[in-house]
Design brief:
Blueprint: E1 4-6, E2 10-14, E3 25-31, E4 38-42, E5 46-53, E6 58-65, E7 70-79, E8 83-90, E9 111-113, H1 130-133, H2 184-231
Parallel strand pairs: 1-6, 2-9
Antiparallel strand pairs: 2-3, 3-8, 4-5, 5-6, 7-8
Length: 232
């Protein structure tokens, strides 16, 4: 199979500042995987990129002419096995965003907005510093600086900030015992039941006495019957 030439996908985002050069730059990423050696010609007005991949059997090539000039000396490049990232410092300090990346307003099929890094112009102040998350080179994970561990867990073990001490009166989340119904009446009822128990014992004794009386009467009847038979 013969080698081919491919136009790689290019994504971009930007920040702007009228006073701080380090906050006035372009993010640019060229998707060129498995390219061990790259050829980059970076100029104030544009960029030319070429890189060959043996595994993909293709040569990536793209030429970009920027909307405005950049500061080449203060721009940075970061090459990984997946892509080549650039942080291109804009030459002119200006609060307004570039309206587009390229000088030509024609839509390019390979050029896309990097929504992972993009923020609106009026929301820059509240946006995370992607430069800190990328080591200044555009290859890190933006917006992850504030995680500090597992997201959403916080310091409460993932219970969403619930204060369990407020759920009960210090009894491990049980309701306050002071709000429970008064147990006094129920206790008195139980005492009354206990006091009635001896009456049951008296009833049992009466039944036993009655049984014994009947047994005595039977014995007397038997004795009387025996005497009658002796007389006869």
């Amino acid at each position: 199979m013969s080698n081919t030439q491919t136009t790689p996908e290019v994504t971009w985002a930007q920040r702007s500042s009228s006073s701080d050069p380090e906050k006035n730059y372009i993010y640019l990423t060229i998707a060129a995987p498995d390219v061990p050696k790259i050829d980059v010609d970076l100029k104030a007005t544009g960029l030319t990129f070429t890189g060959h991949s043996d595994t993909k059997k293709t040569t990536y090539h793209v030429e970009l002419e920027f909307f405005a000039e950049i500061d080449v000396e203060n721009s940075k490049t970061h090459h990984t096995s997946r892509d080549v990232s650039f942080v291109l410092r804009k030459k002119e300090l200006k609060e307004e965003y570039w309206p587009r990346l390229l000088k030509d307003s024609k839509k390019m099929h390979f050029l896309k907005t990097d929504f992972d890094k993009w923020v609106d112009e009026d929301e820059q102040d509240g946006a995370p510093d992607d430069m800190a998350g990328m080591g200044g080179m555009g290859g890190g994970m933006p917006g992850m600086e504030g995680m500090g561990g597992m997201g959403g867990m916080g310091g409460d073990g993932g219970f969403g900030g619930i204060d369990f001490s407020k759920l009960g009166g210090g009894a491990g989340g049980m309701p306050d015992m002071g709000d429970m119904p008064d147990m006094g009446e129920g206790a008195d009822d139980e005492d009354d039941d206990d006091e009635d128990m001896p009456a049951l014992e008296e009833d049992d004794a009466s039944k036993v006495g009655a049984s014994e009386g009947k047994a005595t009467e039977k014995a007397d009847d038997a004795a009387e019957k025996s005497k009658i038979e002796e007389v006869s």
